[in-house]
Amino acid sequence: MTAGGRAGSAAPGAEADAIVLAGGRSARLGGVPKAALRYDGTTLLRRTVDAVGWARRIVVVGDAGGQELPDGVLLTREEPAFAGPAAAIAAGMRLLADPAPFVLVLACDLPRVDLLVPVLRSALEGEGFPGHDGAVAVDEGRLQPLTAVYRSESLLAAVESKSRELVGCSVFGLISELRLLAVDPPEGAARDVDTWTDAAAFGIVRPTE
Question: In the CATH scheme, what is the homologous superfamily, with its name and number, of domain 16-201?
Answer without folding.
Answer: Spore Coat Polysaccharide Biosynthesis Protein SpsA; Chain A (3.90.550.10)
